[in-house]
Write a structure and sequence with these properties.
Helix content is about 50%, strand content about 10%. The chain is built from 29 helices and 14 strands. The strands form four sheets. Strands 8-7-6-9-10-11-14 form a seven-stranded parallel β-sheet, sandwiched between helices. The chain has a three-stranded parallel β-sheet with strand order 1-2-3, with helices on one face. The protein has a two-stranded antiparallel sheet with strand order 4-5. β4 and β5 form a beta hairpin. The radius of gyration is 26 Å and the shape is globular. The chain starts with a helix and ends with a helix.
């Protein structure tokens, strides 16, 4: 149906207050956002919309037409017409990263003294804290918590996947204004990143860490007898507690971060006794998670402790939690957590340390295999005709099927077609290797090629088998997705292609990568310096944000991927010293390092030489040349 017709129907449903209409807006949201990514000047309102001004404003916001919502509300002077329209205006400005305009609207709405809702109050608090209006932000946060006690839940990251219902405990109230500031700044810091303004995040996270420090200075909180008993059983005192909340385990990429967090402890960047809280049904990969046994103490909700005691323990993160979003370096500087992680990898490798999780795997699963008298991947080898001595490379590409995504929205710009990898697959098989494709059960089918295994679509697929296959692979070819972190944690040589990232990466010296070229509307390729500095670094977080700013990523060419794969095979074969590929590597790498805004942005990894050589003229402009 034509967009304007769909919009008009939704407006009519809004005007009659149809129950459940919000779900219809959510269902149309990805379609509308995708259309706007392709045609930013698309408009949904028509002449008939003037008869439904308030309803049109709410629907424009509901379907993600944020620019048009702001324009419509301004033209029709609707900002203070109702709390719902006020929310639509503030949220639209926020999603567009227009924080100054949002704050001006807050002042206008505040003067109108509209009846607040919990969501309006919380959004207002975010906008106020971004504007450094801390007193007003705390007042708005108190209002949000009074109207909905769910806002009293301790917060660090949305990935915790907390339930909607929440019963506050004594610690939520005892944390007071500092606790509200901790929760608000962590939430707002994550949200500004979502809308392409991650440059604002570090100062918000620093406020959260400062709020936590104030709570620690006030002394230990009064905890329940049940929680006191639990900590005694764990042999952990409050002053030594370093709490690791749920979000560290709900995505497999986050488990890779957890690996680095524990390495930070080992190199002396933080101290205390780590206690991790997990919900078994939310752990991203139970087999991979098993490798953390013995590295920290684990509390399993529903198994080791009741829900109520677990929630109280999680509320202690305001005092004793390790922050998921930011890290205070030994010199006192607060940086985004991923930046600290990248620096930690540099320090780790300088000290010549190995791979914690690889050692844990070898100890745990090889002991299991010895006890069972079997190779964990023998059945798969036998099925597909792989001999015990045959080597293989694991392959994984991110695709839209896993999250049921629409192109041009969310994280779809991280997806990549498998067709561009076919030459790399043929390179591997021509050298006598096999290729095993990992992924979800709905992932694109691998074309019929010799010595390939579409494991993702087989009945062998499981969390444990994913881990086994990666650990025993000669190399790994992937994208900026979660499974890549498993290979990196194991120290498997990795070719990361079609890569695009807002965050500094936790990649070690066994990684070579090829970035997706990002081009503006006039065809100009963004440089390495632009991709690692404000504003473009933050704009690449989201496909829609990138599109709104007039840029689109391109997939790597087959040649880019082939060259990266060839270089990683050289690393796997121990040919790193002499491998150059005829690309004048030292000169290229020297120029690349000069182009980085942050020297540690990609950990200790580097781009493949072939990628740098092909894109040197556009990609490796240094700061002076750009000026």
């Amino acid at each position: 149906m034509p967009p304007r017709l769909v919009f008009l129907l939704l407006v009519l449903l809004e005007s009659i207050n149809l129950k459940g209409r919000g779900r219809l807006y959510q269902a149309y949201f990805p379609y509308a956002t995708s259309r706007l990514a392709d045609a930013p000047d698309l408009r949904f309102v028509s002449r008939l919309s003037s008869f439904f001004r308030l309803s049109s404003a709410r629907v424009l916001h509901g379907i993600g037409a944020y620019r048009e919502a702001c324009e419509w509300i301004a033209v029709n002077d609707l900002a203070t017409s109702s709390s719902h329209v006020a929310f639509a205006l503030l949220r639209s400005h926020f999603e567009l990263g227009e924080f100054e305009q949002a704050y001006r609207a807050v002042l206008q709405i505040r003067a109108a003294k509209l009846e607040p809702t919990s969501h309006l109050a919380h959004l207002t608090a975010m906008i106020e804290i971004v504007a450094d209006d801390e007193a007003a932000a705390l007042q708005s946060m108190e209002t949000a918590c009074r109207l909905d006690s769910g806002w009293l839940r301790p917060h660090q990251n949305i990935a915790a996947r907390s339930g909607r219902r929440y019963s506050p405990n004594r610690l939520d109230f005892a944390s007071g204004a500092a606790g509200r500031m901790f929760d608000l700044c962590n939430f707002a810091g994550q949200r500004v990143t979502h809308v392409g303004r991650g440059d604002v995040g570090p100062r918000l996270y620093e406020r959260a860490l400062n709020a936590q420090a104030r709570l620690r200075q006030q002394g230990s909180p009064d905890i329940s007898e049940a929680l006191r008993t639990l900590l005694a059983q764990l042999d952990v005192s409050l002053d030594q507690l370093s709490l690791i909340p749920e979000e560290w385990t709900t995505q497999i990429g986050h488990l890779g971060m957890l690996d680095i967090l524990l390495r930070m402890r080992d190199i002396g960047w933080w101290s205390g006794q780590p206690v991790m809280v997990v919900r078994p049904n939310l752990i991203a990969n139970a087999a991979f998670f098993r490798l953390f046994d013995g590295l920290c103490k684990i509390v399993s909700v529903g198994e080791d402790v009741s829900e109520a005691t677990a929630e109280e323990l999680l509320s202690l993160q305001r005092w004793y939690g390790l922050n998921f979003n930011a890290f205070r370096l030994p010199d006192g500087q607060v940086v985004a957590w991923q930046e600290a992680g990248a620096l930690a990898i540099e320090a780790w490798e300088r000290q010549g340390r190995g791979h914690l999780l690889r050692d844990a795997y070898d100890s745990l699963f090889r002991a299991d295999a010895a006890a069972n008298g079997s190779d964990p991947i023998r059945g798969l080898r036998d099925r597909y005709g792989m001999k015990p001595e045959d080597w293989y490379v694991c392959l994984h590409t991110r695709d839209a099927a896993h999250y049921f995504e629409f192109m041009g929205t969310g994280q779809t710009h991280r997806n990549a077609p498998i067709e561009t990898l076919l030459d790399a697959i043929r390179l591997i098989t021509a050298r006598g290797g096999w290729v095993v494709k990992l992924g979800g059960p709905n992932s694109p089918k691998l074309p019929a090629l010799e010595r390939t295994v579409d494991y993702a679509l087989s009945d062998f697929r499981s969390d444990a088998m994913d881990v086994h296959l990666i650990r025993h692979a000669k190399a790994f070819i992937g994208t900026t997705s979660g499974l890549t972190n498993v290979a990196v944690s194991f120290g498997i040589p990795c070719a990361i292609v079609n890569a695009i990232t807002t965050d500094a990466q936790l990649w070690n010296s066994n990684v070579r990568f090829a970035l997706k070229p990002v081009r503006t509307a006039d065809g100009t390729m963004l440089t390495q310096r632009q991709l690692t500095s404000t504003p473009w670094r933050w704009r690449v977080f989201d496909a829609a944000v990138l599109g709104r700013n007039g840029a689109q990523p391109e997939n790597n060419s087959a040649q880019d991927i082939l060259g990266t794969a060839e270089e990683i095979l050289a690393i796997a074969d121990g040919r790193t010293v002499e491998f150059d590929g005829g690309h004048d590597g030292e000169r290229l790498l020297s120029r690349w390092r000069r182009a980085l805004a942050l020297p540690y942005y990609y950990g200790t990894s580097r781009p493949s030489l072939g990628f740098l050589a092909r894109h040197e003229k556009e990609f490796l402009l240094d700061a002076a040349e750009q000026d």
